[in-house]
Design goal:
The protein is mainly alpha-helical. It has a domain at about 15-65. Helices cover about 45% and strands about 0% of the residues. The protein has helices at about 15-25, 30, 35-40, 50-55, 60-65. The longest helix has 10 residues, at about 60-65. The protein is globular. About 20% of the residues are buried.
Length: about 80
């Protein structure tokens, strides 16, 4: 029987508060398999806009893609917080 464990990856530099919430959630494998809306809800958001805002940052986007996290959306969302 395999032991379940999660490997924590170091934070990308200069994360916003929103990005940090997502990054912390994505450290757990089961959260990496979530669709964007359930991930946002788990982070405490009611919409997907914070995810799209966070993903506008190329360094954060590359870090999430390296984790093989939620599929990155093809369109940009609206963003009220600077990424």
């Amino acid at each position: 029987m395999e032991a379940a464990f999660s490997l924590r990856i170091s934070n990308p530099p200069n994360l916003t508060a929103t990005q940090q919430k997502f990054w912390n959630l994505l450290q757990e494998q089961e959260n990496r398999e979530l669709a964007v809306l359930p991930l946002c809800e788990k982070a405490g958001y009611r919409s997907m806009a914070p995810w799209y805002c966070a993903m506008r940052d190329p360094l954060f986007r590359a870090s999430v893609e390296a984790l093989k996290g939620p599929r990155v959306a093809q369109r940009d969302g609206t963003c009220s917080e600077p990424a």
